[in-house]
Amino acid sequence: MDRSGLELPTFEAGWVWLAGAGPGDPGLLTLHALHGLEHADVVIYDALVGEGVLNLAKSRAGLEFAGKRGGKPSPRQPDISRRLIHLARRGKRVLRLKGGDPFVFGRGGEEALALVAARVPFRVIPGISAGIGGLAYAGIPVTHRAINSVVTFITGHDASGDVPGSVDWSAIAAGSPVLVIYMAMKHLGRIAARLVDGGRRADEPVAIVSRASTADQRVLESTLGDCAAAAVAAGIVAPALVVVGQVVRLRGGLDWLGALTGRTLVADPLGLRSRVEAG
Ligand code: SAH
Question: Staple partner for 97: which of 45, 53, 88, 239, CB 3.0–4.6 Å?
Fold first, then answer.
């Protein structure tokens, strides 16, 4: 790549770069994240960061996994923070790489605050969050002028693993035409039921996007009433995002990945033109 004229910051020894890797496709890395990969001495990465991204690290870099694997419990957050601090104090260039964006349901803030407390210098590199970029790979815009002026990003479970008690599901059901739910698969049936209790229609469109932007991407279109059972029947696996709202219908026109393998896209997936013609 010709990067002449592009000035990227020097990765100084003893620094931690807290970076987002995007939803999976290495092409969705930022230039800062790529630069970090090319210069890091150690890369500490999460389960959501794929091989295609890690292959971009310089060959002498140490790669350390800090996520859940094979049902074993993940390293405790304080242990990860301690490791970052330890390596930085030993003069390493430490790239802390997380899926999507580090500050979106990624505990990046907690790790950064631990660095502040330890007086370790750091830089934050945002990434493309799966709830935006992953949906774009499914042909679903999170906002569309004819549909929504509001979009809400929600986590489907809290620190205890349960449906988050702090989420006011009826307020969200009433106030946000489009919902993007991370970590939703475990409690999808309960979440959908709470939204219907809050006034959402059971026939409202839902899409579940699994492993977005990777070679294994799958998209299941369903409805609020059926989505939990449909996900089980289709064998949809995590990581997956659930999007609720009329923007899902735009996929009929915007599934650009599907078009690459022969899907015919329709120019008016919402049927707005025919509605205008009918008066
Ligand atoms: N920081 C991340 C989110 C971490 S929470 C980001 O900004 O994207 C983990 C959840 O993110 C997963 O349970 C899933 O809901 C979602 N997720 C991350 N990557 C994904 C992908 N490639 N496809 C679908 N969902 C993904």
Answer: 45
For the CA of 238, the nearest atom of ligand 1:
13
190-245 residue pLDDT tens: 999 999 999 999 999 999 999 999 999 999 999 999 999 999 999 998 999 999 99
- Tokens coding 165: 């008690």
Structural domains of the chain, count:
2
Residues 108 and 166 grouped into a single domain: no
Domain that residue 73 falls in: 16-128
State if residue 104 touches ligand 1 by the CB under 6 angstroms criterion. Answer: yes
Q: So which residues are the catalytic ones?
A: 46, 68, 183
Last residue of a domain, one of 128, 161, 180: 128
Answer whether 52's CB lies under 8 Å from 26's CB.
Answer: yes
Which residue, 162, 224, 229, is CA-closest to 197? 224
Over the range 171-188, which residues count as b (16 or more CB within 10 Å of their CB) and which as e?
Answer: ebbeebbbbbbbbbbebb
Instruction: Supply the pTM of this predicted model.
Output: 0.95
Residues 6+ apart with CB under 8 A from 214: 23, 24, 25, 50
What DSSP state is assigned to residue 131? Answer: I
| Together in a domain, 114 and 161 | no
